[in-house]
């Protein structure tokens, strides 16, 4: 008879959960990071491989994770950057025509530790009420885990982008594409590149530290600011670089890119209690009144009162009123807090990629005309 | 845009009687719509023929019409009420079809009634399969290759073009009636013929079968600003080929990647937009090829459906309520989510648990029907279970069904499957039947691989692997043994959904031992909350399910709590009537200052709406699960008691054990319940009170039964004790028949599953009073002994037809005042002697002016809502208050208990039978209840009320024409009376030679002499009916025995849509109805008007 390898999850405030070790088993018996939760029902592969989760441990609120295995197509990055996953039940036998492996094998292959059999609802309620906080899990004893949790610094002020950005520039999309876009890689998801390419762009992905001058020297039709992990204020040099680009070239930012753009405009960001992580958040497009169901993944948000003149709120979160999008028509820039590229999530906001190409067209016209 | 101010009065159409494919989910949706629209300040006019529903309670609409759902009646109501708008999407297919018919008849235009929620064009595009397919192709969605046929020849041609196997779907049907699969030309002939007959416009769609593909449904909503959301995704465990209503289904979808799910979501919205559903909910069904992922659209319903009721309960997102708001102008983002209170309805619910729906069938009540599941719906109800994992929710669903099972096998009933070897199990499981999951588990236990089972069933390996986990856990637990179970072991077992009964079976211990051992290890249930958002936001609605986790979310009680046990899945004999009673109790007790707690597992019902009670526990109605809830509440404050007498037999069965476990049972004591059920105690009681009973006795062996029968004389009525809906009840005429009946009682059906015949579970053998009039009485008694007679119902059919299948009338049309008085006296005496506190129902047989008591049940009966609608007295509410200790005098003073509104009208209840679904089952009525639902006719005279009840039941009586009379010898005297009346009304009569001679001797002309059915010479009744020249059939059973002689005639009547009555009493009533209808146009009056007039009459 088999009894499984028990493990504990301990949060920095001492709250303890019992579970079973799954995925990679670190030699230390400890995995630590900021514990966040995601409420999406499907899309765990995209979530686990989303570089925005660097430094974090992902709790899945849906109890069955791994049902359809993993496949070669749905990764959002070459490897996962999260620190671990917490689930209620890890499927042992995946079923899907595209599956090439099960999730447990995938986690082991990429050295991502996991813990299963957790009362993830209790954990989620706790984070909801107490706020996202560091935690540690593994087969180590409780004291070791608690110490590791307390020692984990969280994400505030840290430059997690440096851990995930590309070292070398690379290009995707055909040479004969209608638009040439330079994309800052703060932790870019493959789905974004796919959408840009599908909208007729060739994209050169550049490291997060690339200077504005180096970007402008590439003579792009537009600049894209990607999603990424952590605190926007912690990303070294980004605010300044983007500030130097605004007004010179059309800019579109998503998530961390949105936060960095608004910082560059002079706004402030703040940390949310537990962030938005899921695929069901309603957002109102202010201009049309239409509601979009959106994919979200962020712990920081833009402070509405700090938006400078010339910028306006284009999208609002209907659950909590947070800013979901900002536009500065004068400077040919706009950005959204949520993920119009989906991957995972609904496709309701894909029109934003067309808005970006329209803006680039307009930018080109103005340059020609001006 | 907020609420529309240009509308004042809105008409709602209900779905009519409960039938297979259309159950109480539409009571749920209709009730929600009524409440929402009235709260918005609209005047609501409701029409529904079904009196058992909650929506037809006079308090839910401004004008409530219990009238037949047909164009002439609706036209009268529209002419009278002049509604500004009609909301047709909450009354199922019936409501939608009627709305289209009213449009086509020009009625909506004539009276300026606007259709809201769906337009005719959208309904037609969604419902007409050909147009639907064209529309889908137009927007780039894939559909299976297909063609349309209107004749058999066309069908054969299309079949060849499309390529076999093909699926045949008739146009404009519900629940898949007439649908079938043909694998070759030969099968095509039969299936296409049935399909053409089932479609009201003789149109069938023939399409390439995708049997074996994965099946999904999305519940979507759209507002007038084109905001769209998916409320819920559902994955069918059973692959394509089994109707979704017959499938075990799971929410959310389990085996789709996000990429595939989002593609489906986009397709669902595109479909809804193209079809043109401007506001409201729709259901879109998809099939996915498990080998390639190819996705095709199967169909869409542009209305609230059974799946949307399921989706609402599965997520906490009230689709019907929000659909009603959208229909009157609101946008999704203008409607608040009740559960979180701070987020809008324009979001997509996300859940952190797994929901399993399991259908409930009634094949045991329909001898002759084959229990093979297919594309046609045959289930009569369903349960839903919530667990944190699929394994847990599957096991909970199974024990919610009340079929004597406590989970996925691992209980005594598994012996039936363990007898088979691995290959036999695989073979059995290859055919979808209600037993398939149990066969799969047994096969897995015999080491059959998941792959092999997937291959033969098409069930996704993920689901099969979940079953395998249950198998492996069972093996693990068996090895550990009860004595060595650790806390972690208990937790793991319970988390996989094992019930204490299953574990007891595994280790040879009692349920009580298991519970005690488990609690000693500290493993007890925790309750989580259904909150639409996976805990992202705080939830204000205590809608709970039980599971085994760390944290319990039950909040402290603020007031004394009353738990109301619901009635579980709809089945024949126990349906929406009991939900009505439970819901009324919840309302009444909430008003009386209690915290009301509902416990039920039927997702179709109003009782499982999260705002019907203060708290809702969506849990199985087993002892373990009920006691768990009671203990959880006791831990949070004062549990005043549990109501067991309003949910039918389901909760009643638990009364004793709950009391033994220290839980207070409100109302009549369990000991009194036993006194009524225990035949010997009851006999003694009647004897003491001097109330005559038919002679009889209690038998625990066939020999006993024969001895009793010979003592009292044949015919005798044989039935098990503790039954509802006459399960296995039979009238027998001799020893041989009696022995057979006793044998069947002991072995087959669910009684056998519950342990068979024994001294604890004896059979009752009573003298059967032939040709007696049966009478039902509902009464109320309080703790002081005060009794109120709710209603005395005279049955139209004579005794011997189950009361649930018989039509009945209030006030009694033929009983003398003296007889009624005797009946009322007996009822009072019995209620007193039994110490009833609350409702009781007593059945009598009246023969030659003598009153015999048949049985008494100290609980709510299925007629309570009918009586309340007929008299205006809210019996269930009064009963609930009485059960918590109030007196009738107090409730009279408060105004809740009023005298019945009577004297100015007659109400007739008629049963609705499912025989059109089961062509191989005889439609003859007997002591076994087989009706699925009921309708009511109400008017100033008996004849007109009866006529309306027949129209409501889909048996519209003709005004003239030809009648076929085919009578049993013993019915000939009574038949003569009926024949004379029909002749007097100008009907031409066709009869067989014997009957014709008798009629002509008595001066009644016979126009056609028919041959006997089966004779080779001459025209027989079947030929005549099939030729379309018959307008009414009166066919009564011929004597005793298998009674099969008339079956061909009744089948022909059904196939040709000719109304058919099977008792002389009903024929006489029909004649009265036809006579009455000839003298005046039927008129329509609302219940509110009837009740007001009745009250005025009383005051005068």
Helix and strand composition category of chain B: alpha/beta
Largest sheet of chain A: 10 strands, mixed
What amount of the residues of chain B lies in strands? 15-25%
What's the total number of strands of chain A? 19
Through-space gap between termini of chain A: 78 Å
> What is the number of beta strands of chain B?
39
Helical segment count of chain B? 40
Q: Total number of helical segments of chain A? A: 10
Distance between the termini of chain B: 50 Å
Tertiary shape of chain A: globular
Shape of chain B: globular
Strand order of the largest sheet of chain B: 14-13-10-11-12-15-16
The oligomeric state of the chains shown is heterodimer
Can you walk through the features of this model?
The complex is a heterodimer of chains A (370) and B (1100). Chain A has 370 residues and is of the alpha/beta class. Chain A contains 10 helices and 19 strands. Chain A has helices at 44-48, 103-109, 120-130, 142-151, 161-164, 190-198, 212-217, 238-245, 256-265, 351-369; strands at 6-11, 16-23, 31-38, 56-60, 64-65, 84-86, 89-90, 113-116, 133-138, 170-172, 179-185, 201-207, 222-225, 251-254, 269-285, 291-302, 312-317, 323-328, 333-336. Chain A has a 10-stranded mixed β-sheet with strand order 10-12-11-13-14-19-18-17-15-16, with helices on both faces. In chain A, strands 1-2-8-6-4-3-9 form a 7-stranded mixed β-barrel. Chain A is globular and about 70 Å long. The model of chain A has no long low-confidence stretch (mean pLDDT 95). With 1100 residues, chain B is of the alpha/beta class. Chain B has 40 helices and 39 strands. In chain B, the strands form 7 sheets. Chain B has a 7-stranded antiparallel β-sheet, with helices on both faces. A 7-stranded mixed β-sheet of chain B has the order 17-18-21-20-19-22-23, with helices on both faces. In chain B, strands 32-31-28-29-30-33-34 form a 7-stranded antiparallel β-sheet, sandwiched between helices. In chain B, helix 35 links the parallel strand 35 and strand 36 (988-992). The longest helix of chain B has 20 residues, at 461-480. Mean pLDDT of chain B is 91; it is low at 749-753 and 1039-1044. The chains are: A alpha/beta (370), B alpha/beta (1100). At the A-B interface, helix 3 and strand 15 of A face helix 9 and helix 17 of B.
């Amino acid at each position: 008879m088999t009894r499984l390898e028990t493990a504990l999850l301990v949060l920095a405030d001492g709250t303890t959960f019992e579970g079973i070790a799954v995925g990679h088993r670190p030699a230390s018996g400890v995995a630590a990071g900021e514990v966040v939760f995601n409420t999406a029902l499907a899309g765990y592969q995209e979530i686990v491989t989303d570089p925005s989760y660097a430094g974090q441990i992902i709790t899945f609120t849906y109890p069955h994770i791994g049902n359809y295995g993993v496949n070669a197509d749905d990764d959002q990055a070459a490897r996962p950057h999260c620190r671990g996953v917490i689930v209620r039940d890890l499927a042992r036998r995946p079923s899907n025509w595209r599956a090439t492996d099960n999730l447990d094998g995938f986690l082991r292959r990429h050295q991502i530790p996991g813990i299963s059999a957790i009362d993830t609802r209790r954990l989620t309620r706790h984070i909801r009420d107490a706020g996202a906080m560091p935690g540690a899990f593994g087969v180590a004893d409780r004291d070791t885990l608690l110490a590791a949790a307390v020692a984990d610094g969280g994400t505030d002020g840290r430059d997690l982008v440096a851990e995930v950005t590309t070292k070398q520039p690379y290009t995707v999309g055909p040479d004969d594409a209608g638009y040439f876009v330079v994309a800052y890689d703060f932790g870019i998801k493959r789905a974004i590149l796919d959408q840009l390419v599908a909208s007729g762009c060739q994209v050169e992905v550049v490291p997060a530290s690339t200077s504005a001058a180096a970007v402008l020297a590439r003579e792009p039709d537009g600049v894209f600011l990607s999603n990424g992990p952590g605190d926007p204020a912690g990303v070294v040099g980004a605010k300044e670089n983007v500030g130097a680009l605004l007004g010179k070239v059309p800019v579109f930012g998503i998530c961390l890119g949105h936060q960095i753009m608004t910082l560059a405009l002079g706004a402030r960001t703040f940390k949310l209690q537990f962030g938005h992580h899921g695929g069901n958040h309603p957002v109102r497009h202010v201009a049309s009144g239409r509601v979009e169901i959106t994919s979200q993944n962020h712990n920081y948000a833009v402070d509405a009162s700090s938006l400078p003149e010339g910028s306006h709120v284009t999208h609002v979160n209907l659950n909590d009123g947070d800013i979901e999008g900002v536009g500065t028509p004068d400077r040919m820039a706009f950005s959204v807090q949520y993920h119009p590229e989906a991957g995972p999530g609904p496709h309701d906001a894909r029109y934003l990629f067309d808005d970006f190409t329209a803006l680039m067209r307009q930018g080109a016209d103005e340059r020609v005309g001006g | 845009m907020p609420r529309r101010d240009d509308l004042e009065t809105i008409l709602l159409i209900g779905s009519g009687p409960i039938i297979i494919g259309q159950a109480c989910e539409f009571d749920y949706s209709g009730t929600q719509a009524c409440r929402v629209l009235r709260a918005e300040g609209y005047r609501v006019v409701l029409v529904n023929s079904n009196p058992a529903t909650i929506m037809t309670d006079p308090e839910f609409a401004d004008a409530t019409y219990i009238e037949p759902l047909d164009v002439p009646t609706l036209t009268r109501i529209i002419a009278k009420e002049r509604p500004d708008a009609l909301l047709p999407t909450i009354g199922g297919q019936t409501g939608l079809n009627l709305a289209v018919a009213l449009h086509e008849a020009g009625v909506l235009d004539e009276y300026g009634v606007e259709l809201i929620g769906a337009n005719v064009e959208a309904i037609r595009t969604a419902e007409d399969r050909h147009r639907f397919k064209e529309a889908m192709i137009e927007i780039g969605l894939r559909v299976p290759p297909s063609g349309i046929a209107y004749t058999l020849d066309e069908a054969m041609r299309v079949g060849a073009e499309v390529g076999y196997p093909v699926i045949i779907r008739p146009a404009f049907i519900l629940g898949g009636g007439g649908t079938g699969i043909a694998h070759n030309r030969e099968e095509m002939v039969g299936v296409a013929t049935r399909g053409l007959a089932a479609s009201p416009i003789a149109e069938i769609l023939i399409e390439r079968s995708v049997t074996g593909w994965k099946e999904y449904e999305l519940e979507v909503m759209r507002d007038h600003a084109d905001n769209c959301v998916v409320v819920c995704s559902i994955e069918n465990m059973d692959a394509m080929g089994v109707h979704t209503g017959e499938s075990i289904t799971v929410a959310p979808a389990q085996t789709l990647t996000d990429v595939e799910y989002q593609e489906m979501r986009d397709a669902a919205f595109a479909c809804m937009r193209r079809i043109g559903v401007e506001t409201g909910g729709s259901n879109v069904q998809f099939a996915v090829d498990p080998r390639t992922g190819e996705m095709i659209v199967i169909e869409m319903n542009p209305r609230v459906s059974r799946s949307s009721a399921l989706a609402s309960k599965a997520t906490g997102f009230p689709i019907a309520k929000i659909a009603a708001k959208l229909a009157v102008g609101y946008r999704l983002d203008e409607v608040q989510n009740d559960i979180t209170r701070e987020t809008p309805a324009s979001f997509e619910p996300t859940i952190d648990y797994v929901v399993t729906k399991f259908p409930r069938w009634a094949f045991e009540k329909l001898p002759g029907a084959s229990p093979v599941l297919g594309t046609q719906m045959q289930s009569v109800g369903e349960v839903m279970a919530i667990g944190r994992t699929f394994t847990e929710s599957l096991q909970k669903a199974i024990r919610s069904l009340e079929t004597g099972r406590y989970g996925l096998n691992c209980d005594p009933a598994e012996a039936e499957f363990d007898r088979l070897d691995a290959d036999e199990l695989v073979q059995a499981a290859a055919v979808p039947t209600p037993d398939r999951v149990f066969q799969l588990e047994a096969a897995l236990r015999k080491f059959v691989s998941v792959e092999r089972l997937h291959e033969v069933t098409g069930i996704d390996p993920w689901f099969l692997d979940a079953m395998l986990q249950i198998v492996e856990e069972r093996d693990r637990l068996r090895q550990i043994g009860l004595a060595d179970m650790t806390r972690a072991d208990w937790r793991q077992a319970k988390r996989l959904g094992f019930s204490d009964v299953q574990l007891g079976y595994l280790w040879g211990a009692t349920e009580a031992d298991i519970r005690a051992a488990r609690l000693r290890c500290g493993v007890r249930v925790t309750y989580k909350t259904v909150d639409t958002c996976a805990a992202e936001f705080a939830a204000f609605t205590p809608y709970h399910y039980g599971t085994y986790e760390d944290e319990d979310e039950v909040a402290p009680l603020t007031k004394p709590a009353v738990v109301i046990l619901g009635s579980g899945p709809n089945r024949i004999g126990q349906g929406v009537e009991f939900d009505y009673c439970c819901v009324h109790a919840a309302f009444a007790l909430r008003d009386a200052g209690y915290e009301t707690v509902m416990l039920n597992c039927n997702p179709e019902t109003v009782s499982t709406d999260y705002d019907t009670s203060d708290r809702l526990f969506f849990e199985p109605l087993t002892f373990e699960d009920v006691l768990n809830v009671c203990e959880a509440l006791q831990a949070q404050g004062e549990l005043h008691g549990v109501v067991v007498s309003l949910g039918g037999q389901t909760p009643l069965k638990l009364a004793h054990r709950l009391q033994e476990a220290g839980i207070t049972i409100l109302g009549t004591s369990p000991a009194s319940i036993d006194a009524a059920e225990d035949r010997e105690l009851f006999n003694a009681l009647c004897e003491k009170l001097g109330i005559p009973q038919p002679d009889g006795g209690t038998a625990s062996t066939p020999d006993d039964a024969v001895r009793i029968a010979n003592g009292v004389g044949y015919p005798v009525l044989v039935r098990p004790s503790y039954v509802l809906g006459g399960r296995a009840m039979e009238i027998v005429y001799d020893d041989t028949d009696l022995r057979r009946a006793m044998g069947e009682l002991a072995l087959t059906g669910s009684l056998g599953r519950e342990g068979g015949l024994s001294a604890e579970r004896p059979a009752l053998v009573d003298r059967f009073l032939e040709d007696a009039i049966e009478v039902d009485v509902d009464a109320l008694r309080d703790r002081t002994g005060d009794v109120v007679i709710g209603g005395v119902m005279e049955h139209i059919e004579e005794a011997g037809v189950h009361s649930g299948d018989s039509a009945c009338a209030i006030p009694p049309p033929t009983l003398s005042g003296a007889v009624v008085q005797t009946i009322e006296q007996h009822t009072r005496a019995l209620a007193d002697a039994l110490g009833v506190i609350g409702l009781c129902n007593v059945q009598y047989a009246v023969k030659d002016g003598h009153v015999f008591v048949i049985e008494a049940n100290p609980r709510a009966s299925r007629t309570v809502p009918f009586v309340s609608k007929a008299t205006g007295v809210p019996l269930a509410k009064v009963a609930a208050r009485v059960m918590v200790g109030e007196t009738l005098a107090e409730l009279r003073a408060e105004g809740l208990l009023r005298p019945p509104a009577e004297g100015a009208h007659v109400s007739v209840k008629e049963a609705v039978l499912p025989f059109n679904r089961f062509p191989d089952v005889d439609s003859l009525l007997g002591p076994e209840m087989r009706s699925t639902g009921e309708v009511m006719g109400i008017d100033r005279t008996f004849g007109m009320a009866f006529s309306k009840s027949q129209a409501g039941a889909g048996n519209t009586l003709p005004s003239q024409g030809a009648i076929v009379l085919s009578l049993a010898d013993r019915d000939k005297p009574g038949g003569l009376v009926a024949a004379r009346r029909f002749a007097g009304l100008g009907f031409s009569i066709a009869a067989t030679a014997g009957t014709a001679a008798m009629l002509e001797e008595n001066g009644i002309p016979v126009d056609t002499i028919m041959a006997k059915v089966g004779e080779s010479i001459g025209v027989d009744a079947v030929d005549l009916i099939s030729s379309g020249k018959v307008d009414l059939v009166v066919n009564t059973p011929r004597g005793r025995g298998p009674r099969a002689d008339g079956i061909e005639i009744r089948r022909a009547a059904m196939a040709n849509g000719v109304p058919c009555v099977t008792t002389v009493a009903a024929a006489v009533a029909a004649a009265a109805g036809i006579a009455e209808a000839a003298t005046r146009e039927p008129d329509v009056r609302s219940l509110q008007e009837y009740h007001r007039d009745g009250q005025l009459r009383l005051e005068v």
